[in-house]
Specification:
2 helices; three-stranded antiparallel beta sheet; 3 strands; alpha+beta; 51% helix; elongated
Length: 73
């Protein structure tokens, strides 16, 4: 019974994380072409790592999971 409850709790946790990811990516898509003010504090809270793939591509890893590749230029 304890294993079943643990599995259900893990599933709920995974579903909550997925919902948060979807919300973040939806917001990012909405803001893609809108001018926004840079808020360094918010950016540092959201982003785990930025990797340079080439001179014109970056891969951004988010703290809540997920990655996004961005074309510069």
């Amino acid at each position: 019974m304890a294993k079943l409850e643990a599995a259900q709790a893990e599933e709920r946790h995974s579903e909550n994380e997925q919902a948060m990811r979807e919300e973040v990516f939806t917001k990012l898509d909405q803001l893609r072409h809108c001018p926004i003010e840079w808020d360094d504090v918010v950016v540092r809270q959201m982003i785990e790592c930025v990797r340079v793939l080439s001179k014109d591509r970056l891969r951004i890893s988010f703290r809540i999971g997920g990655e996004m590749e961005v074309e510069l230029g």
